[in-house]
Structure formats: structure tokens, C-alpha cells
Design goal:
Length: about 325
């Protein structure tokens, strides 16, 4: 039986493992289960190569509270940072291990968790869930996407190389703005469709850059537009808008930057209590299920957090474990 099993090898999960190791937990007493074939799937899949991973992403104060900390880095430097942490602290990660069943059991010696995954069944005294909100990107709700256009309708920027194409980006947040910048630099003709007339969710730097790009005709912004449907026009997406004054447009790619959703069904299987805002937890990420903690984006909210807020969530969880004696044998 493990002391701690962690679901998710992102910043929060890796930080909790490192904090536990620094506190004295042996490597063979900690296990991270990661459904992807490598750590930090979201950073690898959703960040363009040129993107700077900012310590204070979305304005979150970059104040480290625990063992791990980082400054503004490139994507490659950030991944190298995590490679080093995993190696230095001898963190045990099982990759390609998708979790599909969890339960809390009791025996005379105390309660524990049994976690079933695609690579086996594991038991632990403490369970921490550190899956990100981008595990399931938001998809359009008002129209369906033709399956024949699967390679033309994308939800991230790394699955294919896009150069010299006409591309529609759908969304109005920082991710959408950063996609626009990246696509323009790669020589694409970029259009941005946003349902609002004003951008309310952009950081100051992204707002300034996007407005300058519009002024210099480097991006066309279709404000106040809503897609009615997308048709397959000889292998390319034909976008039909609800607004009569916006003619149908043919693009070579459509990229959706609509954010992510908390994987609600996954969390409900654990017996976690929910309210209107989502899963319920305290300031340490502890849930109503004893010994079960949430980390990272799951405790920040729908806007998501920074890598450092994920680090700090692991610090809070570890302090609670120590204070409650749940990590007494660590």
C-alpha cells in the first residue's frame, strides 16, 4: 500500500510528490498515475513552442510558498525543469495509466483508497486528484462538428503544423489571443470570431498586442459573431454565422479556444460534494471525503491558475496531511 497516490502528472501532482519526498516519504511510497505517455500533457499539447510560460499567468501573484518555484521560461525550459524535479526527487510516475475506478474502503487498521487504472489496481492511505481543467476542452454547444473535418477542426495548436493557411480562431480569452499571435507569426491569414463586442477576459499584454495586430491588418476580428453551423465543403470547413450581415466563409482550419471544463463526472465518482460552483473543498484542497484532496486548477476555479498556484496547492495539502497526522508514518 502506498502512502500517497496522485492522479495527474502536472504541476500540482508533481509538486505534491516532491513536497512529500522532501518531508521524508520514500520513493516507493508515492505513485503518480498519468493517463498520457509523459508528464505535463497540457503544457505540451496546448502551448505553442514559442510561448513563454509566465510565472504570473493570468495575473496570479507569482509567490512561491514551498519547495518548488520557477520564473518566466520557454516551454522547453519549463519541461526541462519538471524533468529535473522528477529525476532529483526520484518521483515514481506510471504513464499511460488511465484511472477508471476509485473507492474508499475501511478495515480494522483504518480507511484507505483503492484506485483502478489501465495499468493495475493500487491502494493508498491518501488520494490526491490533480487533473487539469483542460483534460476535456470545451466544445461548441449550439452546433455539431462534421466528423469528416476532424483534421481541420482543432482544439489545440500542436497536433499539426499550420503555415500559409486561412485560419479561424473561435474564442475571446488569452488562449485565443495567443493562438492568433502564433498563427500570424507562422504566416497564416488569421480571423478571430468572438461572440462579445468587447474583450473582457484578456490580460493587458494580450489586449495591447491583439488591438495592435488589428490596427495593422494582421488579424481580422469578427466581434459579436456566433457560428450557426460548420459544413464540409469539399474537405474544408464552411462557416455559417447566425448574423445575416456576416457572409459564410470558407477556411482551411478552425481552431476552438473555448477553455476547459472541470471533469465533473470523474470527481463525482469519488463521492465529492458539489455546490453550484463545482466540487467543494477547503483552503487545503481537502474534500468531504477524508484523505481525499484536490490540487492545481481544480482548486482555483473556472479561470484556471498558474503553475505556481498549482505548486502552492500542493504545499497546502501537505501541511494539512502533516497537521492531521495522515502523514504520520511519512
Amino acid at each position: 500500500m502506498y502512502q500517497i497516490v496522485i492522479v495527474g502528472a502536472g504541476p500540482g501532482g508533481i509538486a505534491l510528490a516532491a513536497e512529500a519526498r522532501a518531508y521524508g516519504v520514500e520513493p516507493d511510497q508515492i505513485l503518480i498515475l498519468e493517463k498520457a505517455h509523459t508528464h505535463n500533457w497540457a503544457i505540451r499539447q496546448l502551448y505553442p513552442e514559442q510561448k513563454i510560460t509566465t510565472a504570473n499567468y493570468k495575473g496570479f501573484e507569482a509567490k512561491c510558498e514551498g519547495l518548488l518555484c520557477l520564473s518566466d521560461m520557454t516551454k522547453a525550459q519549463t519541461l526541462e525543469f519538471f524533468d529535473k524535479i522528477i529525476n532529483d526527487y526520484k518521483i515514481n510516475i506510471a504513464y499511460d495509466a488511465e484511472v477508471f475506478g476509485m473507492e474508499r474502503l475501511n478495515n480494522p487498521a483504518g480507511s484507505y483508497f483503492r484506485v483502478k487504472s489501465s495499468t493495475g489496481t493500487f491502494e493508498a492511505k491518501t488520494l490526491a486528484v490533480a487533473i487539469g481543467i483542460f483534460g476535456r476542452p470545451n466544445k461548441p454547444k449550439d452546433y455539431s462538428l462534421p466528423s469528416s473535418l476532424r483534421q481541420r477542426l482543432l482544439f489545440d495548436m500542436t497536433t499539426v503544423t499550420i503555415r500559409g493557411e486561412s485560419v479561424l480562431v473561435v474564442g475571446g480569452g488569452d488562449t485565443a489571443a495567443e493562438y492568433v499571435q502564433y498563427l500570424h507569426l507562422a504566416g497564416n491569414q488569421v480571423t478571430l470570431s468572438y461572440r462579445q463586442m468587447e474583450f473582457f477576459r484578456l490580460s493587458d499584454s494580450n489586449r495591447t498586442t491583439l488591438m495592435a495586430m488589428e490596427e495593422h491588418a494582421e488579424v481580422e476580428i469578427l466581434r459579436g459573431t456566433n457560428i450557426k453551423r460548420i459544413d464540409d465543403d469539399h474537405g474544408r470547413p464552411l462557416v455559417i454565422f447566425n448574423e445575416a450581415e456576416i457572409p459564410s466563409r470558407l477556411f482551411e482550419r478552425v481552431i476552438f479556444a473555448l477553455g476547459g471544463t472541470t471533469p465533473t463526472n470523474f470527481l463525482r465518482t469519488l463521492g465529492i460534494a458539489f455546490n453550484d460552483d463545482g466540487p467543494m473543498f477547503d483552503d487545503a484542497g481537502a474534500t468531504n471525503v477524508p484523505g481525499l484532496f484536490l490540487l492545481g486548477d481544480l482548486v482555483v476555479g473556472k479561470k484556471g491558475g498558474s503553475i505556481i498556484t498549482a505548486f502552492n496547492s500542493a504545499v497546502h495539502a501537505m501541511k494539512r496531511l502533516r497537521a492531521n497526522g495522515q502523514a504520520a508514518s511519512i
